[in-house]
Amino acid sequence: ARMTRMGGPEHHLVYLDQRMLAEPIRLALTIGGVDFEDERIGYDEVNARRQRGELPFGQVPVLVTKDGAVLSQTSAILRWAGQQAGLEESPFCDAVEAALGDVRVVMRPQWYGHVLGRSPVDGTFLVPLSQAQADDVVKLLADVVVPTHLKRLEAKVVGPYFCGASLAICDLSWYNMCIGLLEEWYCPGLPKTVLDACPRLIQLASRIHHLPAVRAWNEANGYGTPPALATYDDTAM
User: Fold this and answer.
1) How does pLDDT run across 152-170, given as a tens digit for each residue?
2) pLDDT of 64-106, one tens digit each?
3) Which residues pair with 37 in a beta bridge?
4) DSSP per residue over the chain, as a string?
5) How does pLDDT run across 118-139, given as a tens digit for each residue?
6) Is the full-model pTM beyond 0.85?
């Protein structure tokens, strides 16, 4: 485990030792002051637990509540975490989450270098991209696909947060994606210039980055601050 909140964990979150899909869940629980154990495991352990039938859908993240209920699938766990934290809920938040999911879907060939990603049976990679295909994928993602998706999201930022005055889980999902794009770990090979036309989205991420609970979490985990998020102007939106 990387971090257990003071007072002992009430819930047990399992994911890889990376930010990616589970980080919005971690942030929601942290912001809400919800006790949880943050267990981080490697791919070999994921496969071992898959073979033992411990992962309901064969993948992580998985969360075991203090009552023993096993929650799986990122979106379901994030929604639950947001409810525990008292974050804003709305159909518009669901729409933004779906739009961010669309961005993740188009990134998958770049993530894995394979058309079908990982096997649901044993986690091996399926259908490798040729070098020419890999080159085409990253070029189209960088020049057209990702900037277009982000431009549409940029137009939806109308207040301090996506849903107005209150923080929602979709804001945390975007924050994690944004910081990963700026630091170029969210989709390796994709340049941070995909965010050049997205000042509102960057400002939204900066607002979240400077929340006290988020700042404390980042410091505890040794996460830095991208230059684009170093300052926050509260009058900019």
Assistant:
1) 999 999 889 999 989 999 9
2) 998 889 999 999 999 999 999 999 889 999 999 999 999 999 9
3) 4, 12
4) --EE-TT--SEEEEEESSSTTTHHHHHHHHHTT--EEEEEE-HHHHHHHHHTT-STTSSS-EEE-TT--EEESHHHHHHHHHHHHT-B--HHHHHHHHHHHHHHHHHHHHHHSBSS-B-TTT--B-SBPPHHHHHHHHHHIIIIIHHHHHHHHHTT--SSBTTBSS-BHHHHHHHHHHHHHHHT-SSTT--GGGGTT-HHHHHHHHHHHTSHHHHHHHHHTT----GGGS---TT--
5) 888 888 888 999 999 999 999 9
6) yes
**What tokens does 134 get?**
């890999």
Residue whose C-alpha is closest to residue 201's, from 164, 163, 150, 148: 150
Handedness of CA 199, 77, 187, 136 (dihedral sign): negative
Distance of alpha carbon 156 from alpha carbon 162, whole angstroms: 7
Token digits for 107? 């990134």
Is residue 32 a contact partner of residue 213, using CB atoms and an 8 Å limit?
no
Of 1-15, 135-149, 223-237, least confident by mean pLDDT is 1-15
CB 71 within 8 A of CB 63: yes
Contact (Cβ atoms closer than 8 angstroms) between residue 150 and residue 198? yes
Cβ 27 vs Cβ 220: under 8 Å: no
CA distance 23 to 217: 11
One-letter amino acid of 181? L
